[in-house]
User: Fold these one by one.
Assistant:
Number 1:
Amino acid sequence: MSISLRGRSVLTLDEFTSEEIGVLLQLAAELKADKRSGKETPRLRGKNIALLSEEDSIGTLFGSEVAAYDQGARVISLTLPAGYAGQCGSLKDTARMLSRIYDAVEYCGHAQSAVEELAAHADVPVYNGFTDESHPIQALADLLTMREAADKALPEVTVAFLGDGRSAIARSLALGAAKLGMDFRIVSPPIFWPASSFIDGVTSEARKNGGKFAILEHVGAGVLGADYVYTASWLGEHEAGWAERIRLLAPFGVRANVMEATDNPRCKFMHCLPAFHDSSTNVGARVAKQFGLNCMEVSDAIFESKASVVFDQAENRMHTIKAIFVATIGGWETDARERDC
């Protein structure tokens, strides 16, 4: 069965089948190998891609630019002014205008409704670089990293996410894992658990594909047997809420005892970055002074350990973005039987 993603937008992983996710991961792996061997074939010559962002994101925007350049496309990056939709034209009009000029649009911002509105009115693919609700590109990069680092197929992999289970990355990765039949656990205080409707939907999807999904409060039970322990920044956008978040999430920080509790000496550590693993940043220094913590969601020892694959994840974001570009505007298609998760 041939699978083609030509002309598709990428807003959430919920819109993709397990087979489609599998072929995207396979394409990303092939493109990565081609780049490293110097044998990459540009499939996007003559294509133009607009990168729109409400705020700077080094990983996503830089990765998108290099991915496009590697494949022969031209890109323009534009940081949107605050209140763009109300002051500089509606998103509906922006989408229709950009469709006349560009072959695809990537959007990085806060509201999921914004990227969905762009996609609803654009005549070209629209990609969700990240929003507060969904981060499909990061989730695909994480799955690619797990695929590379594990000594078994993804459906046999167990992942424990510690921290804010309502975060975009926790929910996106949970959905991707469910699609691929993995064992995924969110380990966090109940106040940070996702909505019950999300839990029910992901649980059903996981069961359908032979996987498991669980929400747990106890760290020891949550990480036992995990192949990957994943966490993300605790800090929200507004500093006024930091104290409460740090108080609630402190027991879920990834330290040596957490990795040992997996009872898996091959367990890897993952983080989507930026990470607050020491007090060398301005934010880290403020937190250290105010709360007496020299690290937050992960200790420096774990972040810098041989178990850490965080920079593999960062690199793989570029390769998965490239796979999305090639699959949606490069005319690529594959045989689903070639998928090897």
Number 2:
Amino acid sequence: MVPKIALEEHALCPSLTEYWHPTVADVPAVVRDRLLDALTDFGDRRIASMDRAGVETAVIGIAGPGVQVETDTKRAIAKAKASNDFLAAEVAKKPGRYAGFGHMPMQDATAAADELQRCVEELKFCGAMINGQTLGRYLDDPAYAPFWERAAALKTWIYLHPADPVATMPALEGTYGLKRATWEWGVETGTHALRLVFGGVFDRYPDARLMLGHLGETLPYLLWRFDSRAQLYGVKLPQPPSFYIKRNIAVTTSGMSSAEPLNCALAALGNDRVCFASDHPFEDAGEAGHFLDGVALPEEVRRAVASANAKTLLGLA
């Protein structure tokens, strides 16, 4: 097995389970209990799962939605800080095997910026993981300027993870199998990222860095189309959308153990912009690891995706 660094590995601290339970209310109890058990484990079972996939280091983020659905801003700030302290303590128990993404109280942009800086500078996290929109507000909202200014100054990564939209698309009503992870989350998260691109966030903050799972939520497949339609509709950006996607966005393999989208992402974004992730425990880490070990790739590209890109982009030793 090629040694790997995994960038979308999930966990929960006890104080955040109240936000997670409603998102799995329609999941069979036996599955829900198994997931919760895995999410709250930082011991031998998590390490064993990593070892089965050849993962040397897992960058752990809080499973959604977390405090992003909290309506009390002060409570969201306090619980985000507490969860980050909890995760930092767990990471410190297994240095080298675990690293962390911070959990952000996006209800308050300045508080989120301060917490991001604390996570990066004091807790030594790799950046932050944000679980979609926060109370209906997306990350291109002008109110988030203090957050993006700080993130760009820190040159740290913001991992945009899927979460439920404000409302289900009418086309998905009555089709449960297409909701959430099957299709809905990809549309929601890809659209969220495009709002940042087309809204000029990456033009205003050239050093801002966004990471997407699932090999880019279909964005690599559509670069030409974005540029073509932006020109047609008179989108006022100094550069075509694909420029910002290639410069400011990196992607991971989470939940995508398939050669075709992997090859597309590599061709569209470059061999240095694709990293490994297993999406533990929502996907099987062993399957994700063995896929990357066996998929037809030049060995230097395989090793870049497996760990070298993560070391370079996130500064991981």
Number 3:
Amino acid sequence: MENTMQPIHEGSRKEVMSYLEPYMLNEMSEYLKPVEEMWQPADFLPDASRDTFFQEIKDLQDSAKELPYDLVAVLIGDTVTEEALPTYESWLTMVDDVEKHEQGGWMKWVRAWTAEENRHGDLLNKYIFLSGRVDMRQFEISVQYLLRDGFDIGTGRDPYRNFIYTSFQEIATNISHRRVAGLAKQSGDKLLAKMCGVIASDEARHAKAYISFISKAAEVDASEVLVAFEDMMKKKIVMPAHFLRESGEPQSELFSHFSDAAQRLGVYTAVDYVDIMKELLTEWKVDAMTNLNEAGEKARDYLMRLPDRLLRIADRMKNPEKHYSFKWIHGGR
């Protein structure tokens, strides 16, 4: 889309969101796939209409038995996170100027993104149910709690902070699902590896979309974008499931155990956090941004120095050794 707007020096989010609306309508399809061409959960799961249905379930369960305990825990945590999708959709509709027009570019994007993401929880939920390794009642309690508790990610209604968050988070989710896919394959569960692989591919496309939204905003409001980015990194990007809990436990109690398991496996680590930030700095060409006001220049300088600082901290972090028995998993450790 041709840039016909002069740079905005007062940080008018409303003006920028209106400027981006035609881009959303015209370019959104680049980051989405036609419904009829998309994979669906049924493509991967045992088919109850076939005579081979029970054999397919037995094969699925035999493969799932070989998955390491921590990997099952991370898979369940990822599934709980995906199942909290209604929270994320309602949060996106509260971003300033998103819900301005029901058929506008922003609302169309939110609905299309939600429709694609909805398949992830559907697929993983059915897999863990069929696997026989998961206490589904405990899992479902965690999902209900996470939906009820919501999340607090420090973005408010600001579109810049929200889309910086989603840019970061979609990359993180891609990494997590991709690594689970690799570990599942190593353990002999080729079906789960395929499932997590296609989900990771969706997350990668969605990350590109949110990254492009911020790139477009930075063309006309670079200083405000950088200040928002700086603010998000100072607060730290929290995961959507940071309020994760099990039955009978207080809010957030379970998230550290889930994170420890992911760190031990190398599914998502402190170094990954730094690498994502580096990727976003490169994608948004932060080092080359010019015509900034004083706050924008300070933010740029802070952001460019931050990865090295965070990496030093990450390198000093010890791998968590203490294992945890999740109520989600049958039979204990």
Number 4:
Amino acid sequence: MDLQESKFNFSKLNILANQIVEGFMSGIHKSPFHGFSAEFDEHRLYNKGDSTKFIDWKLYAKTDKLYTKKYEDETNLRCHFILDNSSSMHYPKVDKFDLDKCSKYTFSSISILALINILLKQNDAFGLSLFSSKIDFNISEKCSYNQLQVVSNTLEQYFKNHGSTKSTDTLKSLHYIAENLKRRSLVFIFSDMFQDDSNTNNVFEALRHLKYNKHQVVLFHTTDFEKEIEFNFSETPRRFTDVESQKKIDIYPNQVKEDYNLLAKSFKAKLLEKCRQYRIKYVDADINRGFEKIILTYLLEKQKF
């Protein structure tokens, strides 16, 4: 995938995002914080020691009283995206970014770039962390088109260069990110949450760490629902390979489907229960169901923030 192709696909996503959110963008949030930015809010009486730079001299001429202009702070939302970059997220295998045929990684990447475009229109700050067995990439929140370019290039780079056996250490990675998010943020996690069974409870505690630090957390549980949850494969024998350990098993899918369904749905139910317990928003993000649910979730969570 060359850079020109990547930009073309992402520009199509920008069109999609704009279509979905165009009617929602007006008046979504009004800053409770005040500084001296470009958008005028109201007047207040001049106090001794205030800068004279912001005195409204026209109002002084009318009222014979000194008032300063108070402004809305244009950047009041900080949004941090956390993307699971383990090998399981690169399933199913695709060779380019495409809106109609996605891996879990490309679906998440396109979703993140769509939301960043909305954030930029609102002058809100955004950052990104990628993790697998370690933190692969981390950039703190900032509002700029240069930051968008860095994020876009990074997502493309890890798509092209991902290894075939990257394992997942969600526990360590989420604890690290929680410790380094210094200001309250809206945190979006894109992950299939596949872990070794022994680490599952610890992962829930890592999610709890993000909530403890006052962040508003949304988990987009990213799956290929038909294959990974429903286990809908043909009845012919197949060889399945664990993309992280490279272990292989030859089975007839229909012989194990019922047991697999029970385990997969039990895991989802436990994940949902823990998210409710820790007041984390859980969103079932099926890569075959489009991006509208992702963007609408963002708009609703932003209103709550």
